[in-house]
Amino acid sequence: MVTYLEAANAPLKNTGQIKLYGDDAFAGVRLASRLVADCLDALAPMVVPGLTTAAIDRFVFEFGMDHGALPATLNYRGYRKSSCTSINHVVCHGIPDEKPLRDGDIINIDVTYILDGWHGDSSRMYPVGALKRASERLCEVTYECLMAGIAAVRPGNRTGAIGAAIQAHAEKERCSVVRDFCGHGVGLLFHDAPNILHYGSPSEGVEMRPGMIFTIEPMINLGRPHVKVLSDGWTAVTRDRSLSAQYEHTIGVTETGCEVFTLSPKDLDTPGITPRI
Ligand code: MF3
Ligand code: CO
Ligand code: CO
Prior knowledge:
By secondary structure, this protein is α+β, with helices and mostly antiparallel strands.
């Protein structure tokens, strides 16, 4: 049986109960999320061939520090970086390093800040130079999947409606949905109940209620859905080495639908128009 409780009365850990947040929490997550969006916006013009993911990570760290926020990934379960940078066939949790980006790469940059105790978590795809049509299309489909999932968020629907909408769109476009990672409750904690699956049926999952805050973060592959984690313990890659993309927003359930906290104030969180080969 799933239970819900007022976040203000909740222990600061994942008990499996679903926290229902009030106005103060929404204001806090809104601010943390806005900072994440601003950071991801600032990275847009920087992502060009030759840039290293370590340089991206340093920027994410400094940007957080400059605005009073801590990157949530830093020392999280042994992770040692301020961001995840996942290139091409890397599905998620790519570890920043000194390898330069190359023309035609697609990269997901995933940033979570803790500001005043509140978490905001978002990721986007960035084109590196000119893309092949297939890479560009995968990013578009993945973004559309995220937005289809967000459109299914409203009180009374189950979280399965989100997964069903994402899966239907991905498979219509002959792409596959990664099953091994999911969205998650967020707010006072980085990863909290409930899990938000990116596949499934509308009758599954828990009923959404106003005050819930969680992420939706579909990982979509051009090939098969299966992943493996490399020996570094983090980097998840597609087993068939096909391209993978991901977009992530932090959202809050409202009386009528949802508020997307991590939207770009500059409209830079969409695949947009990319130069093409
Ligand atoms: N930001 C990721 C997410 O969307 C989690 C990264 S955890 C890390 O949930 F340890 F890999 F950084
Ligand atoms: Co997340
Ligand atoms: Co994230």
